[in-house]
Design goal:
By secondary structure, the chain is α/β, with parallel strands linked by helices. It has helices at 8-21, 41-49, 51-61, 68-90, 97-109, 113-125, 131-147, 151-162, 169-185, 189-208, 218-233, 237-254, 257-273, 277-294, 298-310, 312-317, 357-361, 363-373, 397-410, 424-428, 455-470, and strands at residues 330-331, 346-351, 378-385, 416-420, 436-440, 446-451. It has a domain at 330-470: Glutaredoxin.
């Protein structure tokens, strides 16, 4: 969607100027007092569209620190404001064609997909619809229908869009991406692939366009991974790996060590997953030498190399049998577990600590997975160790253990928790950073290792759990 960045005060002033320039005095109401004129629907949209920018300036003035929760709350407020303005505008007796367009935009900002489709469909039926706005309307109808898992009607509107002018790469990328995701959710990878290809092509063109230099790399990665996922599911290894190679090349050109590592990491894991561990090892070793060529900047070069070297232990473990846990671990339930005894189940090892903020943030998902997938064969083992006073915990291990038990009860952690006397378990699995997640399949082989937590990582872990549970014993 376009981002109209107009400060709130200017909106009010411009609306007042517009009213004064019309040359019409406000009509009196029944009491004889002048009625407040209705604000143009476009002005309502502008207010909503600039809401986050306006609030950001307000937070800065008040020295309110940024946080993800604050951003989410602000977005929620924006959606609520959009919904109120849309309802108000739709209740008017007279709605012009332009009004209909901006009501559609308000419904889009309110995340009301039905309202978006309805209003833009009415706008497109108008004889005086502006061609450029009509194309934007079509694009948002396609995206809305795709999000609603209605790909067939979305395909028809996409065809109409492609047959008209003007077309925009940003709109093409968004439409094709959402249709690819719609087909992916239906596991129709044959129909997903061409849309993923088209979305990735558009995003690559946008990335190389100097006028879009500020465009985030996230969209490029997102669409590139759609291509990878489509072709990997179709068993077309060369095309799947070509998408990752493309991402790696774009990362080098863009100077992004994180994106560079992301592409290489996924290719190494994919090669191991498809039974080519020897080739994966050779590829990994070759990339260590390529980093120097791909990143002349020493700091970026060092960043990329460190990320890759940090994964060496994980690559060695992936695809092979899981390492047995130390025998001296203390299990809070009093019932020791071993990897061998859990064969036939999917095992999630969660390396965590009571002082680790990201570990605590991941607890709701772990509890949800325990409840949802436990009956289907998932066993979660929370692995920690004694940390002592260097981490602000009691120096006495008996007291620290008591604190740990109290912590697990307070946070209602329903799965097995074990405490190590040292770092042996962490060293076994390369889990020196927290949290680290390890997934072991029903046959006892390591299939996934990742460090850290965020929304995309959580989705990735969930997807892998579902995949491993679906596999035969």
């Amino acid at each position: 969607m376009n981002r109209v960045l107009i400060p709130f005060l200017i909106l009010i002033l411009s609306a007042a100027v517009s009213s004064a320039q019309s040359g019409r005095a406000p009509a009196p109401d029944a009491s004889g007092a002048a009625a407040t004129p209705e604000r143009p629907v476009k002005a309502l949209f502008d207010e909503v569209n600039s809401y986050i920018k306006t609030k950001a300036a307000e937070y800065a003035d008040k020295k309110i620190p940024y946080s993800d929760n604050l951003l989410e709350q602000t977005k929620k407020e924006q959606r609520s404001l959009a919904a109120r303005h849309a309802a108000s505008a739709e209740s008017r007796k007279e709605i012009s064609t332009e009004d209909r367009y901006y009501i559609g935009m308000l419904q889009w900002l309110a995340s009301n997909l039905d309202g978006t489709v309805d209003n833009f469909t009415k706008y497109l039926a108008a004889s005086d619809a502006d061609p450029a706005r009509a194309q934007t309307s079509r694009s948002l109808v396609v995206v809305s229908l795709a999000k609603q898992k209605k790909p067939d009607p979305a395909e028809k509107v996409l065809a109409e869009y492609l047959g008209k002018e003007p077309t925009k790469l940003t709109e093409l990328a968004r439409m094709q991406s959402e249709l690819a995701k719609s087909y992916e959710s239906a596991k129709d990878f044959t129909r997903m692939a061409p849309h993923a290809d088209a979305a990735f092509t558009a995003e690559k063109a946008l990335l190389k366009d100097p006028q879009n230099s500020s465009r985030s790399l996230d969209e490029v990665v997102d669409t590139g991974m759609l291509v990878f996922e489509a072709y990997s599911e179709l068993g077309q290894k060369e095309k799947a790996e070509a998408a990752l190679d493309d991402l790696r090349s774009l990362a080098a050109i863009s100077g992004s060590p994180s994106m560079y590592f992301y592409a290489i990491d996924h290719k190494v894991k994919y090669m191991i997953e498809t039974g080519r561990k020897g080739d994966a090892t050779d590829y990994y070793q070759a990339t260590l030498a390529d980093v120097v060529r791909d990143f002349p900047d020493k700091s970026k070069q060092g960043d990329a190399l460190q990320r890759l070297k940090d994964r060496q232990k994980a690559y060695a473990l992936l695809g092979g049998p899981a390492v047995e846990l130390p025998k001296d671990m203390l299990w809070l339930s009093g019932q020791p577990k071993t990897i061998d005894s859990l064969k036939g189940k999917v095992v999630l090892l969660d390396f965590w600590a009571t002082w680790c903020g990201p570990c605590i943030a991941a607890l709701p998902e772990l509890k949800e997975w325990h409840e949802q997938f436990g009956p289907k064969g998932l066993a979660i083992l929370g692995l920690t160790r004694y940390y002592g006073q260097s981490y602000g915990l009691p120096a006495d291990r008996t007291v620290e253990l008591s604190y740990l038990k109290s912590f697990t009860e307070k946070h209602e952690m329903p799965y097995e928790i074990a405490v190590g006397d040292g770092q042996q378990a962490q060293i076994f699995y390369g889990a020196m950073l927290l949290p680290t997640t390890v997934l072991i399949d029903r046959k006892g082989n390591v299939r996934y290792i990742a460090t850290g937590t965020n929304s995309s990582r959580t989705a990735e872990i969930r997807s892998m759990i579902e995949k491993l549970i679906a596999e035969d014993r």
